[in-house]
Amino acid sequence: ASVALENARLYEAQRREADHLKALLEFTGAISEAATPDEIGAETVRAAARLLGGKKCALWLEDERNDFRIASHTDYDADPKLTAMLSISMPGDAIRAAVDNRAEPFLVTTDEAESFVPAPPGLTWPDLAIAPLLNDGKLEGFLAVREPTLDSEHTIEEILRLLRGISDQAAVA
Prior knowledge:
This protein is of the alpha+beta class and 173 residues long. The chain is 48% helix and 20% strand. The chain contains 6 helices and 6 strands; from the N terminus they run ααββαβαβαββα. The protein has a 6-stranded antiparallel β-sheet with strand order 3-2-1-6-5-4. β5 and β6 (138-146) form a beta hairpin. α1 packs antiparallel against α2, α1 (2-33) runs parallel beside α6 (156-172) and α2 runs antiparallel to α6 (156-172).
């Protein structure tokens, strides 16, 4: 019975891995067909949300003042608590210090996020998974996933690995 249970667990893990690879391949195809940076951004957040089970995601890109603003998102305009996020910019220096030239996705707790960049009035930062978008070592943006481990079927290692695949492809695009 224990061998059968272990085989079932391994089979399920392999099936999920195949699903992840298929979704990443579909994402690669979608961004290769995208005609504009806005389409690439929309595909990026859609892929992240789909792979992570419907999580709220935002793609923050550097603006003309070297600050960061949301360029694409999943349903932020449908959630009154998140609508305010669409109009703010975060100071580029603080974001660069927080990311600290990390190439790999990482977790940021509510307290850590608040210490890097204080939340806008009336808002609080949730736990976040952050995936930097680097181009020749320069931070051009980042993908943020709200409360990545809340009600998730994925381990944190899986979440970060999937975000790495998405952010690498998005940065190239």
